[in-house]
């Protein structure tokens, strides 16, 4: 395994924790050493939950490795049941504990606990977090769900939302309302908010809604095969996808399609002259496969952007993303290394990034605005307000989230036009910060001519630096890089106005 400053996915036991934390009446006994208990912070700090995850750690130490670590696990299981009295338990090992091969599942079977105990086999060195969540939900459904008579009224199960999911809580509310408008009720939402007892009632629904394929597809496939429940394939993120999703639901149920678009704010802007400002803006997309695929459709078909590049970090969705990239005429980037993502973004120099919390930081370094569309995310992406991604209100939220960074660029451009003003010049710093910025260092004695010189770094002359600041901030970085590339290819080490204009003309062809 590769150490990294940051990673897109944690080990698979974190995925299992996301499922356990989303549910009620379920307890997770995790065979893990001291140091693997950091996962609590993911939920209490980032998601701002008011209770800790329902997990008991064995927390064995180095000195325990010479003794009986299996007995530590058995004791932890018995203590967890006596203390929490859950309806069901799941047991497994962290990536470190997997190395000592204690077999938590086998040990739990011999203990005779009076509740279902579901063992998890999560290969930590081959798979990652989303697989862990998908596999955990699948094992729970397979162990607890049973065939039964369908409900008297048409109902469905919402499958896939977990704790620490990107806007999962609000997506549940939005989808419940959309389905309710068609007279369809929600039988069980799993794992978010469900109990093990609720999972035994999954078979009463007429069909399943697969909200997030990364975390619910295995369970949906099993229920389609074993319980005779079809499931939806369209993820309703974006206006077009929401219409397609409800059309799919109508086909499954025989109900008439019902979609109230009166709440949609996008059409009025699309009909305005201001919308032409967005047309053709080049965007780069990266995140989990489901959200990237949804965002690509919105970007091209609903916003009028140009998709300059896209990719995903979860290899389970790589085939789908590669096929999508071919349709968009770009090369897919499938990687878990954020440095590769940064290099691709720097190469493409888009006007905007649609990505994860990682790409937000990349955008800050490169001077490119970024809107977050996918996990992994940080605390600011768990807002207190209602902020779904799915359905009509989700389309409104996405519109605001994507457009505002670009529209605010116009405001920044106006400030740039007045950079020589006593209040707005670069050395004054941001007025709302109340402090001065670090003085900008320029060449103190600009040379009158640009003599070719193959050695040394490229230096911007004062007149060219002032002219560059007139370029809007969201494309200024691209203009600077293009000009420096143009100068380097011609052996120039000093950039003046002539070189700046020549480079502009060269790349405008």
TrEMBL record:
Q: Give the record's GO biological process terms.
A: light-independent bacteriochlorophyll biosynthetic process; photosynthesis, dark reaction
Domain named Nitrogenase/oxidoreductase component is located at 12-406
Show where the Light-independent protochlorophyllide reductase subunit B-like C-terminal domain sits.
Answer: 460-504
Q: Name one Pfam family in it.
A: Oxidored_nitro
Q: Which cofactor is recorded for it? A: [4Fe-4S] cluster
Protein's UniProt keywords contain Iron: yes
Its lineage reads: Bacteria, Pseudomonadati, Pseudomonadota, Alphaproteobacteria, Rhodobacterales
Enumerate the catalysed reactions.
Answer: chlorophyllide a + oxidized 2[4Fe-4S]-[ferredoxin] + 2 ADP + 2 phosphate = protochlorophyllide a + reduced 2[4Fe-4S]-[ferredoxin] + 2 ATP + 2 H2O
Identify the InterPro entries for this entry.
ChlB/BchB/BchZ, LI-POR_suB-like_C, Nase/OxRdtase_comp1, P-CP_red_C, Protochl_reductB, Protochlorophyllide_Rdtase
Which EC number(s) does the record attach to this protein? 1.3.7.7
Query: What interactions and quaternary structure are annotated?
Result: Protochlorophyllide reductase is composed of three subunits; BchL, BchN and BchB. Forms a heterotetramer of two BchB and two BchN subunits.
**Which residues participate in substrate binding?**
409-410
Principal EC category: oxidoreductase
**Chain residues that bind [4Fe-4S] cluster:** 36
Q: Which family does it belong to?
A: Belongs to the ChlB/BchB/BchZ family.
According to its UniProt entry, what is the function of this protein?
Answer: Component of the dark-operative protochlorophyllide reductase (DPOR) that uses Mg-ATP and reduced ferredoxin to reduce ring D of protochlorophyllide (Pchlide) to form chlorophyllide a (Chlide). This reaction is light-independent. The NB-protein (BchN-BchB) is the catalytic component of the complex.
Question: What name does this protein carry?
Answer: Light-independent protochlorophyllide reductase subunit B
Cofactor: binding comment = Binds 1 [4Fe-4S] cluster per heterodimer. The cluster is bound at the heterodimer interface by residues from both subunits.
Q: In which pathway does it act?
A: Porphyrin-containing compound metabolism; bacteriochlorophyll biosynthesis (light-independent)
- Show the GO MF annotations: 4 iron, 4 sulfur cluster binding; ATP binding; metal ion binding; oxidoreductase activity, acting on iron-sulfur proteins as donors; oxidoreductase activity, acting on the CH-CH group of donors, iron-sulfur protein as acceptor
- Give the UniProt keywords, A-Z: 4Fe-4S, ATP-binding, Bacteriochlorophyll biosynthesis, Chlorophyll biosynthesis, Iron, Iron-sulfur, Metal-binding, Nucleotide-binding, Oxidoreductase, Photosynthesis
Q: Where is the active site?
A: 274
